[in-house]
Design brief:
Pfam family, one: Radical_SAM
Structural class: alpha/beta
Strand content: 15-25%
Region (Disordered): 323-343
Keywords: 4Fe-4S, Iron, Iron-sulfur, Metal-binding, Oxidoreductase, S-adenosyl-L-methionine
Shape: globular
Number of helices: 11
Radius of gyration: 19 Å
Helix content: 25-40%
Protein name: Radical SAM protein
InterPro entries: 4Fe4S-binding_SPASM_dom, Aldolase_TIM, MoaA_NifB_PqqE_Fe-S-bd_CS, Radical_SAM_PqqE_MftC-like, rSAM, rSAM_sf
Strand order of the largest sheet: 8-7-6-5-4-3-2-1-9-10-11
Bound molecules: S-adenosylmethionine, iron/sulfur cluster
Largest sheet: 11 strands, mixed
């Protein structure tokens, strides 16, 4: 089920989820995103992915992310088909603009579990202006969400990033999604990232207020999942006291961080990252070392797990110089290293 790992108190010791960045190519250029245009020199083949997954005895979930994942549709379809045959839940994270009926039918046939679509606006003009994309895009996203909601096998999730663009409109986006038939709405705290130069964050008070206002305005038919709160609000602080009662409502779910603890990110060049956006530290490469061995033996990962999950002292944003400030101009694309060994 969606976010079951994030709500079950998953412990370090079993690698239960893998996020696979199948590509960093994207048809969008979202200013806040650090996951596109990484210019990888090597793309995992379906056989590479199967080899990695086969060696993970505790794997319960595979999330396909990117870049725009569906630019690698055939690869996604093959991974989903393989995972379904093994009883592993699959999730596709997509901007929703590349889907049509044929692709939906292929995803359903492959056994896709969750389609997770980004939605930060409620109408065409604002969407097109913010993303600097054609006005054709927003209606495509809406159609994709509606088609997904009508699927008997796919669980639809809409995700909204909480950042300055959505701070005031979050309740409106939520009601819009609920009106489309969406019953799971993920609110993702913004993650500052150095890659494209975006390090703006709202600050703790504004994040806390925005979440509280949204909960008050929640459509009772739609469950809210709030992700990455602990990246911004240290556990035990005053903001937690304010928010904790809100999570007593079964329709408002706090999705705990499982990055590094029960989930790792596998990039398409074989690099293994602790968390793609929050802690993009590379702990190894699957073309050089077995993923399970990396998970069990990486000293960097162990440090992260201790600091982030056990002692609560790790800042997810240590890769940023000054979180809370926007740098302005983009630094342009980043290059990922070429794996040193290719078996
Ligand atoms: C990197 S995208 C890849 C999948 C797809 N292209 C999409 O937009 O949904 C995966 C998710 O990360 C979110 N995301 C991107 N940049 C982020 C940031 N700086 N902070 C928080 N979430 C972010 C996106 O909104 C999206 O829901
Ligand atoms: S958030 Fe998704 S759609 Fe936007 S640039 Fe990143 S990968 Fe592309």
């Amino acid at each position: 089920m969606f976010k079951s790992l994030e709500t079950c108190g998953a412990e370090y010791g079993r690698l239960r989820s893998l996020e696979i960045g199948v590509t960093s190519r994207c048809n969008f250029r979202c200013a806040y995103c650090g996951a596109y245009d990484l210019l990888e020199r090597q793309v995992l083949s379906p056989a590479d992915v199967v080899r990695v997954i086969e060696a993970l005895p505790d794997l319960e979930r595979v999330k396909l992310s990117g870049g725009e994942v569906l630019l690698e549709f055939d690869l996604c379809e093959q991974i989903i088909g393989y995972c379904s045959s093994r009883g592993i839940l699959t999730q596709v994270n997509s901007n929703g603009t590349l889907l049509d009926e044929e692709k939906f039918e292929r995803l359903e046939a492959a056994g896709l579990g969750v389609l997770h679509v980004s939605l930060n606006h409620v109408e065409t003009a604002a969407h097109a202006a913010f993303y600097r994309v054609s006005e054709k895009m927003f209606p495509r996203i809406v159609r994709a969400v509606e088609r997904s909601v009508s699927s008997s096998s796919i669980d639809t999730v809409v995700e909204t990033v909480l950042f300055d663009e959505t701070e005031a409109t979050l309740p409106e986006v939520h009601r819009f999604a609920a009106g489309l038939g969406v019953r799971r709405h993920e609110i993702q705290m913004e993650i500052p990232g150095v890659h494209q130069g975006y390090t703006g964050t709202l600050g703790q008070d504004r994040l806390c207020e925005a979440v509280a206002r949204l909960v008050e305005a929640r459509d009772p038919r739609c469950t809210l999942y709030v992700s990455c709160l602990s990246a911004h609000l240290p556990p035990g602080g005053a903001h937690w006291s304010r928010l904790a009662p809100l999570f007593r409502d079964p329709g408002v779910v706090r999705a705990d961080c499982v990055e590094g603890k029960a989930q790792l990110h596998l990039h398409s060049n074989g690099d293994v990252l602790i968390c793609e956006l929050g802690c993009p530290e590379v702990i190894g490469n699957v073309f050089e070392e077995d993923l399970l061995t990396l998970y069990r033996t990486s000293a960097r990962l162990r440090d992260f797990v201790r600091g982030k999950h056990e002692e609560g002292t790790h800042s997810c944003f240590r890769h940023c110089d000054r979180p809370g400030e926007r740098r302005g101009a983009s630094r342009g694309p980043a290059f990922l290293p070429v794996p040193r060994v290719r078996p």
